[in-house]
Amino acid sequence: MILLGIDLGSNSGWSRYDTVAQTVEWGRNDWGDQKLPPEDRVICFGEWLQREFIHQPIKAVGFEQVDFARGKGAWVINRQEGVLQWLCRGRAFVGVGVPELKKFATGKGNAKKPEMCEAALRWLRILGVSGKVAKLHDDEADAILVLCWMLENVYKGEKTWGS
User: Fold this and answer.
1) pTM of this prediction?
2) Domains in the chain with CATH codes
3) Dihedral angle computed from the Cα positions of residues 81, 138, 122 and 162, in that order, rounded to the nearest 10 degrees
4) Over the Cα atoms of the chain, what is R_g?
5) Which end of the chain has fewer CB atoms < 10 Å from its terminal CB, N or C?
6) What percent of the chain is helix, strand and coil (3-state, nearest 5)?
7) Highest mean pLDDT among 11-25, 39-53, 106-120
8) Minimal CA–CA distance to 106: which of 77, 68, 48, 148?
9) The 92-97 sheet, strands edge to edge
C-alpha cells in the first residue's frame, strides 16, 4: 500500500511511503511562478495528482490543513483542497492542522521552519532512509511530516516501518 503526504500551496511538497517495499520518496512541485493565474496553478496540481493516482496504487492521502479564510495563498490552497477531496473518492483522505502537525513533529505547536526541517530529517532516519540527506525544503519537510503523522495516528496497526 502507498501513502501520500501533501503540503498544499503554490509550491507543494509531497512524500510517498510504500509499506510493502518500505521505501520513502519525496519532492516539491512548483506550480508556476506568481505571474501564472491561480486557476492555472490549481489545474497543474490536479493534473499532477491524477498522474500520481494512475501510476501508483495509493491507498490514502494526508495533507496539511491550513485554517485561514483570507490571505495571499488562501484561494489556491482552498481550491487545491477541493480538487484533492474530489480526486480522493474511494481513498482514505485525512487532513492534519498546522499546530497539530508542529506539535507532533517538535513537541510544540508554534515550531519554526528550521525546526520542522530538522524533525523531518529525524523521521527520514526512522523510516530507514540511508545515505546523507543534508537539507530539505520546508515544503518537503511538511509533506514528510504529514506522512509520518498518518503512519503514527491513522495507520498504527498497519505500519511495517522502523525496525
Assistant:
1) 0.89
2) 2-153 (3.30.420.10)
3) 30
4) 15
5) C
6) 45, 20, 35
7) 106-120
8) 148
9) 23-30, 11-18, 2-7, 58-65, 92-97
